[in-house]
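Entry 14: structure prediction run for ABC transporter permease. Input pasted below.
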Amino acid sequence: MDATALLLAATLSAGTVLAIAALGLLINEKAGIVNLGAEGMMLCAAIAGFAAVVHTGNSWLGFAAGMAAGALLAAVFGVLVIWLNTNQYATGLALSLFGAGFSAFVGISYVQEKLPEQARHVIPWLGDLPFIGPALFRQHPMVYIAMALTVGLIWFLYRTRAGLVLRSVGESPESAHALGYPVRRIRLMAVVAGGALCGLAGAYVSVVYTPLWVEGMIAGKGWIALALTTFATWRPARVLFGAYLFGGVTMLQFHLQGMGVDMPPQFLTMLPYLATIVVLVLISRNPRWIRLNMPTSIGKPFYPGS
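Run finished. Output tokens:
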């Protein structure tokens, strides 16, 4: 039972990375923008957050630095694709490649650095409960913040006027423009907000999840987060569920190794990515699932003068 509780706790922690990043990408796509640069933004945010904690000793400043790095890169991406009308997919891939190289260059001097010892987080009373205490109530606050972000995004998208405007920009930017809404500025704000959340996820990886810096440490989590938006058919609650599902698959490899399961470690390592491919293949077999909630103008440029 202790092993199961630890597996559940690790699942929540691993899923938090994917959930925060995927929620950010969901905001982008609800506005009609596809950002394939999540991996690069998360890597740059990871080194920014790690460096901030090394020099200040404050993990929350590390999260702020990661969000700033993600938002800055997303803003550059937004200007290129929204105002200069560059191809969204090519620009996103370029951002991902840039982030991988730039973070590796900047992080050379931080490879051997160690972070200050982190405080243990336990919710009083609840953390002492058998089984569910270790599993649910001894998590870093960012785990609960990810859950709150999901609820907040549901409320914003489906219960507020601003959320309705954002979705209308993703559905029909021409109609939104005709009604007087600044489509380009709305899309840029959505891209920056999404980049900040990707940055927060990247900083969480280097500051909390694996408190160290090594080159390429995001290890495909940005791509999995991107796939999660399709897996969830652009619904925030499903994003959170999918993030924990993939987080559980990721942690299962370590759990099986700890139990002494005789299986090649390479196979266990590829489980999360294999699960991503299988899920996307299953979803693609029923295009109606995707068309039902997919923003109509996703990935399409908008020219206000046309």
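Notes: The chain has a mean pLDDT of 90. Will compare against the previous run tomorrow.
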